[in-house]
Amino acid sequence: MNAQTKEELLADIDKLISYGKEESTINPDLLAYLSIDDLISIKKKLLEKVNILSEEDKEWLEQFKKYE
Description:
Elements: H1 6-18, H2 28-31, H3 36-48, H4 55-61
């Protein structure tokens, strides 16, 4: 399994949150206080939103999926 570091998860979450906006809607510094498990859960929930996005958005989000 290719586990991500906390920094990688924070970067991915920041990109997912700020997609289509000028800046992030949440301060990424606040996310740094969360555990790895919390960050993985947040990222997973953000990726689940792919199902309600346009095809263009889905293609952009595919870059964050990890296949085992």
